[in-house]
Amino acid sequence: GEQDEVQEAVEVDIRGYVRDWERISEAYRNLQHYTCEECGWTPNSPMQRRFIHVHHIDGNKLNNNEANLKCLCVHCHANVDEHHMHNFSQGYNQSQLQEFETNYYNR
Question: Are 49 and 35 spatial neighbours (Cβ–Cβ below 8 Å)?
């Protein structure tokens, strides 16, 4: 239907995010004062802000409605579900998670 045609017109990058995702993510994290909505962790310095992610609640990276977004520290983001645990078990995500848990995250 018409809805599908609108959806397909959205430009996405190689990871499936909309082109202006960085701007959307930054604005949402700013709105939430870079605080994890799950555990309440908050960065001590601007450098640590990279450990605050924006999670899509419904899993749809094209649904950037504020109600579908959640600020999560990398630890809480990695532990959302099996899919996220897998994503954070390798590559850059894994090294970011390990650095965060080792240096900044007090359970």
Answer: no
